């Protein structure tokens, strides 16, 4: 009876864990989906018609800076980084903030010129950019099999671009620039922070990075968008629309923290693939963006290559974990043998030597 109750409790615990994992994934997909569609709605000239991506990004950064400050300094729900110094901030956080601001600026600008579905297809190039820069900065080891995988992803995206009905060269340039800058930011995080044993969760990241992003974005905003906003006399700040948009963007960062913390980064990658397909379907059926068969063929090739890349990473992680466990096991075995040898040595000592010991 006790054994059956224990088994039932274990099964219940496993079931609860599975349900929670799927809940985290569903919440992250919903928030990520909502931010992308909401940004498209605000920036697209045929919808809300507010084509000011720098201004929108600055609103997000100001909102995130304020909330992160409250959570870290006022409510103390998250501890600031103890290792953060002024020198580290200017040498590491400021360059990362610059790249983050450029990535957000370029990616948000692309929504003015490209469809949601095509943007998601172009984002499939992110592993290619991250791996290539990782090899360049010697954070990854060149592997011909991995590089062939990267080439296959690139071919798939190129086919999707060839079949795009609403192809816009400037929009593609902006989105590819966003991918490259974001990849460089991720590699620099490894070089400037992770290599020093410093890790920041999304809230502390926003606490340190968002103010720097806001300041960097203020330069192109003042030069490019501020004069246009002055000429738009009919504009009034829509607190509900921009406030809700900023809140969802902030919650997305929290969801990333929870999802990776409660599951794994690989789970997030897989969930991202599901989200991309949902966005393509939504873009085609609701926004009525045209998705061609060549689009789907190209993205299908890239999708399979990305899935294989994630699978290869998972296998490499398993091998690395097994090697680590094997090393720990070997060390424990060596200690056990050493203890046994010392015990046998003590047994061979004369009684007088044992009493002295």
Question: What keywords describe this structure?
Answer:
mainly alpha; 12 helices; globular; 357 residues
Map the helices and strands.
Blueprint: H1 2-43, H2 53-74, H3 86-113, H4 116-122, H5 126-136, H6 144-162, H7 169-192, H8 202-231, H9 239-262, H10 265-285, H11 293-348, H12 351-356
Helix pairs in contact: 1-9, 1-10, 2-3, 2-8, 2-9, 3-7, 3-8, 4-10, 5-6, 5-7, 6-11, 9-10, 10-11
Describe the structure.
With 357 residues, this protein is an all-alpha fold. The protein has one domain. The protein has twelve helices and no strands. The chain is globular, with a radius of gyration of 26 Å. The model has no long low-confidence stretch (mean pLDDT 84).
Brief rundown of the structure:
Pfam families: TPT. Helix content is 81%, strand content 0%. It is mainly α.
Q: How many individual domains?
A: 1
Strand content: under 5%
> How many angstroms separate the termini?
53 Å
Uncertain segments:
none
Judged by helices, strands and strand pairing, the structural class is mainly alpha
Helix content: over 70%
Order of helices and strands: HHHHHHHHHHHH
**How many DSSP helices?**
12
Quaternary organisation? single chain
Largest sheet report = none
Mean pLDDT: 84
What integer value in Å does the Rg equal? 26 Å
Number of E strands: 0
Q: What general outline do the C-alpha atoms trace? A: globular
């Amino acid at each position: 009876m006790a054994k059956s109750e224990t088994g039932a409790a274990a099964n219940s615990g496993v079931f609860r864990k599975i349900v929670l994992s799927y809940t985290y994934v569903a919440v992250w997909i919903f928030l990520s989906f909502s931010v992308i569609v909401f940004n498209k709605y605000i920036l697209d000239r045929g919808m809300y018609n507010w084509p000011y991506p720098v201004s929108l990004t600055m609103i997000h950064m100001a909102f995130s800076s304020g909330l992160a400050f409250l959570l870290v300094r006022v409510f103390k729900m998250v501890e600031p980084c103890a290792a953060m110094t002024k020198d580290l901030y200017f040498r590491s956080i400021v360059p990362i903030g610059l790249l983050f601001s450029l990535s957000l600026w370029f990616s948000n600008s692309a929504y003015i010129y490209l469809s949601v579905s095509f943007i998601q297809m172009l984002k499939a190039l992110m592993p290619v950019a991250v791996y290539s820069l990782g090899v360049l900065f010697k954070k990854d080891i060149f592997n011909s099999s991995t590089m062939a995988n990267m080439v296959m992803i690139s071919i798939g995206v190129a086919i999707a671009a060839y079949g795009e009905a609403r192809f816009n060269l400037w929009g593609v340039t902006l989105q590819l620039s966003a991918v490259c800058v974001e990849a460089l930011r991720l590699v620099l995080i490894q070089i400037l922070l992770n290599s020093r044993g410093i890790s920041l969760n999304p809230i502390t990241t926003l606490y340190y990075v968002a103010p720097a992003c806001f300041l960097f974005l203020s330069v192109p905003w003042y030069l490019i968008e501020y004069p246009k906003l002055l000429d738009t006399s009919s504009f009034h700040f829509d607190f509900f629309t921009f406030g809700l948009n900023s809140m969802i963007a902030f919650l997305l960062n929290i969801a990333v923290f929870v999802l990776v913390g409660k599951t794994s980064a690989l789970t997030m990658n897989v969930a991202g693939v599901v989200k991309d397909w949902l966005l393509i379907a939504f873009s085609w059926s609701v926004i009525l963006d045209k998705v061609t068969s060549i689009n789907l063929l190209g993205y299908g090739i890239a999708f399979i290559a990305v899935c294989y890349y994630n699978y290869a990473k998972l296998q490499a992680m398993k091998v690395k974990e097994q090697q680590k466990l094997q090393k720990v096991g070997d060390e424990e075995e060596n200690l056990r043998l050493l203890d046994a040898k010392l015990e046998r040595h003590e047994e061979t000592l004369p009684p007088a030597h044992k009493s002295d010991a």
